[in-house]
Each structure stands twice: as structure tokens, then as C-alpha cells.
Amino acid sequence: MNQSITGETEEITRFDKEFVQLARMALSEQTEDVRLYLASLVRQYRRNRLPLSRELERLLKSSPARSGSVLRRSGRPEVTETLPLDSESQMSLLKVYRDEAFPTPPVLSPNVRAHLDQLIEERAQSARLAAAGLSPTRSAIFVGQPGVGKTLSARWLASRLGQPLYVLDLTTVMSSLLGKTGSNLRAALDFAKRNRSVLLLDEIDAVAKRRGDESDVGELKRLVTVMLQEVENWPRDGLLLAATNHPELIDPALWRRFDQIVQFGLPDDRALRDAIEQFLGPTNSAFSRWLDVLVPLFRGESFSDTERAIQGLRRRVLLGDGNVDSAIAELVATRALDHLDHDARLNLALVLSKHTRWSQHRIHAVTGLARDTIRKHLKVKGAA
Ligand SMILES: Nc1ncnc2c1ncn2[C@@H]1O[C@H](COP(=O)(O)OP(=O)(O)OP(=O)(O)O)[C@@H](O)[C@H]1O
Ligand SMILES: [Mg+2]
Predict the structure, then answer these.
(1) 169 DSSP β-pair partners
(2) Minimal CA–CA distance to 289: which of 332, 325, 340?
(3) Is 169 helix (H, G, I), strand (E, B) or coil?
(4) Could you tell which of 141, 303, 310, 311 is best to mutate to test the pocket of ligand 1, judged by most ligand atoms within 8 Å of the CB?
(5) Over 50: is that where the pLDDT of 251 sits?
(6) Domain-by-domain residue ranges, the chain?
(7) Ligand nearest to the Cα of 167, by number
(8) Which residue has the higher pLDDT, 181 or 96?
(9) What is the pLDDT of residue 210?
(10) Which residue of 79, 238, 293, 344 has the smallest Cβ count within 10 Å?
């Protein structure tokens, strides 16, 4: 009896300690350590706290390891060589992503998807290519407006290739002294070449943007030359990616060196629908009947702007009275007035009358259209 009380007390004390340890890691934002620790607790609790163990396991699986960290398997760092540092600030030049798996892949147009699948297929079939004297695609440049998934796709690609993604942001590198830019660029490129990886030169147009300053011309030319050579001689088992919002600023000679050019466009309705469903996450079902209303609200917007607005919507529903209908009405009202032209608002009025039970008065209130206009438009469309 006594023994059992002592045993129980010991267990409670250990549980308390584990709790404190977890809190400590969480507060110092050691997310990867939290994950590793939780995984060990899952195993341990299987013996005496099965429901808790299952719940923790479920949580771990539903939020897979994410960006910006060096994931460790069996406590061993995977990168054997340390990341190159900027000599002055001692900050890492490269940002590291090691996404083991993506819970949901990025929403891609069929064309972009085909390009990326081709890259992966070529890697899988590299022996066959080599037998025919061919190399797999070694470099690609991603072109598109902000927030359309260039960086996200690079992460997804690297995770599918089972390699880390290193990102060198050229805007940051270019903001340092130019003389140092050259050595920083070289250090980053050499590091990526030595360690099997995907390297993303983000905002590669930043080099061109510095052209205005006469005194830098010589050094800038040298930088472009370094990049030209690197793109051309990148190792066959590595992949060099670049991303830009300003293709027109890139030196044509450099541009030509990339094996593939991948154009990322703004999402069409199909892609917007898929993305909105993805961004709604676990609350998807509560909003599913609103998708026809949501999609036209975001036409012409990037994925990231849409994501931000959808997250705002989810927050409003969660912290408000939980009424989806009124949160959507609020969203429609703000977006219709700020982002949609007259025709788009007329179309929206039509969608609202078809997919909701809202009165014409309410549709008038949220779209800002005159009631007469709505009535006439609905009549014409109804007759058509
Ligand atoms: N195609 C997509 N599918 C799903 N989510 C996306 C997509 N594109 C962007 N997002 C969301 O927007 C965020 C920002 O996207 P990302 O960083 O890939 O944009 P980018 O094209 O690299 O923009 P920038 O030119 O500003 O670097 C992503 O982390 C993701 O949450
Ligand atoms: Mg980006």
C-alpha cells in the first residue's frame, strides 16, 4: 500500500518535471526540441497514460515539422558542415528549410505543376538520362508576383527530392557592402554545392537594382559573372533555383543560362477555390456552402493576400459569436467596396442572391449597389 503511494507520488513528480521542461522549451521557442521531447513522451506514456499518448501523437502528426530549422534524427545534426556566416554580422547567410513532408502541397496551375513534376521525374530517372548522355535539369528560374507560391514551391520541391532547401536572399546580401557581397555570394554557393541540396537565389533581380550607382558597376559585373558561371556549372545532383518579381531587370545573359523558366500566375477561380479550402483548414466544413461567394471576392488577388483575409475571417468567427453568415457579410462589405469594380459587384450580387437567402436589402447593404440596379440586373439574368 505504502509502496503504491510512493510509486504514485514519484510518477506525479516526474510528470510535473516533464511539464515544466516542456514549458521551458516552448517559452524559448525551441519548437524542434519540443517536437522531439513530445515524441519521447508519446512512447513513454504508452505504458501508463494511453489516451494522453494517443492525443499527443495525433497532435504531432497533424502539425508536421516546419520551416527554418535543422531537423535532427536520433539527436544527430544532419548538416555536417556549419552554415556560412556573414563575417561582419555573424548572421547565417542561408535560411534553411527541411520540410519532411507537406501536409498539403501548394496549389499550382497545371502548367507549373507539370514543370515541377518534370524536374522530379528527371531526378528519379537520372541514371537513364546519364546513359543517354543527358543531365537532369539543373537550374530553373521562378517568375511571378509576390505571394504566388515561388518560395513555397521551392520548399515543396526540395521536400519531394528529400533534400534541404537553402535560401539566399539577394536583397539582404546586396544591402551589405558590395565587396563583401561577392564573398558572401561565393561562400553561400560553395556551401550549397558541397552539401547535396536545393539552393534558391531569392530576389535575384536585387543585383540589377543596384546598377544605378556608377561606382559599383565593376563589382556588379563581377557578381553577375560569378552567377553566370555558377548557373552553367552547377553540379548535376544539385538543383539551383532562382526567384524574381522583376524578370525585366535580369541580365539577359544570366536569364538564358537557366534550363527552365517557370511562370507563376495569379490564381484562377479553380485555384482560388482549392486554396481557400486549404486556408480554411479544419473549419472548412462550416464554410463550404460559402465558397461560391468567397471565390469572386478574391479574383485577381495573390494566394498570400487571400490567405491573410481568410485567416482574418476565421478569427472573426472564432472570437465573435460564431456566426459565419454575419462574418461573411462583413467581409463581403469591406472587400466589395475596396476591391471590386461595378461589374464585379453586380456579379457578386447575382451569386449572393443565388447561393444565400439574403434579402435584396441586405445584398444592397453589403455590395453598395443601388437596390434598383440589383433588382433590374437579377431580373435580366433571371430571364436569360
Ligand atoms: N500556390 C500556393 N498554394 C498555397 N498557398 C500559397 C501559394 N502561394 C502562396 N501561398 C501562401 O502564401 C505564402 C507566401 O507565399 P510565397 O512565399 O511562396 O510567395 P512568393 O511567390 O515567394 O512571394 P515573394 O515574391 O514575395 O517572395 C505561403 O507561405 C503560403 O502560405
Ligand atoms: Mg518568395
Answers:
(1) 202
(2) 325
(3) strand
(4) 303
(5) yes
(6) 2-63, 82-263, 269-383
(7) 2
(8) 96
(9) 60
(10) 79
Tell me the range of 173-187, 202-216, 255-269, 352-366 where mean pLDDT is highest.
255-269
pLDDT in tens, 174-192: 766 666 778 888 888 999 9
Q: Hey, which residues does 85 pair with through a beta bridge?
A: 92
Q: Is the CB of 316 under 6 A from ligand 1?
A: no
Ligand 1 center–CA 105 separation, angstroms: 11
Residues 342-376 as b or e (16 or more Cβ within 10 Å = b): eebbbbbbbbbbeebebebebbbebbebeeeebee
Q: How remote is the CA of residue 343 from the centroid of ligand 1, in Å?
A: 29
Whether residue 24 has pLDDT greater than 90: no
- pLDDT reading at 73 higher than 50: no
Query: Which grid coordinates belong to 253?
Result: 545573359
Mutate which of 113, 116, 152, 305 to test ligand 1's pocket (most atoms within 8 Å of Cβ)? 152
**The pLDDT value given to residue 119:** 95
- Tell which CATH classification among 1.20.1050.10, 3.30.2130.10, 1.10.340.30, 3.40.50.300 matches the domain 82-263: 3.40.50.300
